[in-house]
Amino acid sequence: MGDKAAKSKGKDVTVAPRNSPLPDFDHELERFFGRRWPRLFDWPDLGARLESAAPKVDVIDRDGEVCVRAELPGFRKEDIEVSLSDSAITIKASSSQEKGEEEGDFHRKEIRRDYVSRTVPLPSEVDGTKATAKLSDGVLEVTAPKVERARRQTVEIR
Fold first, then answer.
1. Which of 58, 61, 112, 126 could bond to 144 as cystine, CB 3.0-4.6 Å?
2. In terms of DSSP bridges, do strands 139-145 and 65-71 run parallel, antiparallel, or are they unpaired?
3. Structural domain that includes position 24
4. Are residues 129 and 68 in the same domain?
5. What is the pLDDT of residue 4?
6. What is the pLDDT of residue 2?
7. CA–CA separation, 135 vs 156, rounded Å?
8. What backbone torsions phi and psi does residue 70 show, to the nearest 5 degrees?
9. Dihedral pair phi/psi, residue 25, rounded to 5°
10. How far apart are CA 72 and CA 136, in angstroms?
């Protein structure tokens, strides 16, 4: 069949030859559609779109509290939902905007929807009932006190 077997630390390993009969997906698309076909994973804006779907988050572990800062530019406080468990925080934000223009027989309407979501584990357990949140200049800051048993203790070395 053309496969080669190699010995590696007492185990048989199958190595496919360089001219494998299995087709490369991108190669087959190029062969069918020509060179103009965009490669499946080379789309330049795909990574940017995936990155923009999750806000950038900082988690700060202080002595008596945990502070989480999330970048949410363009969202109002009414657009944001924060849920906090003992060991994780979930931040969701969604907004929509419609713009329309009518002039004679010309009608144009643009609809824009934004949605971001991220769940982040917390470094220690927190009391979600005493958490506070504020939004300032597109940065959401959520602060929650640590549960008493989760507070950091200094241990003396003898």
1. 126
2. antiparallel
3. 19-52
4. yes
5. 47
6. 47
7. 40
8. -130, 135
9. -60, -50
10. 10
**How many alpha carbons lie under 13 Å from residue 16 in its C-beta half-sphere?**
6
pTM: 0.58
Strand partners of residue 143? 67, 132
User: Which tokens in the block code for residue 83?
Assistant: 């849920």
Q: What are phi and psi of 66, to 5 degrees?
A: -120, 130
Beta-carbon contacts of 48 under 8 Å, excluding residues fewer than 6 positions away, are none
Residue 93 lies in a domain: yes
Let me know whether 69 and 139 are in one domain. Answer: yes
Tokens of residue 78, six digits: 């009414």
Among residues 93, 66, 89, the alpha carbon closest in space to that of 77 is found at: 93
pLDDT in tens, the chain (158 residues): 444 444 444 555 444 444 545 456 666 666 666 655 555 555 555 555 555 578 899 999 988 899 999 999 989 999 999 999 888 999 999 988 888 888 887 778 888 888 899 999 999 899 999 999 999 999 999 999 998 876 677 788 88
Q: Does residue 129 belong to any structural domain of this protein?
A: yes
What's the domain count of the chain?
Answer: 2
Please answer whether residues 124 and 82 qualify as being in contact, where contact means their C-beta atoms are separated by less than 8 angstroms.
no
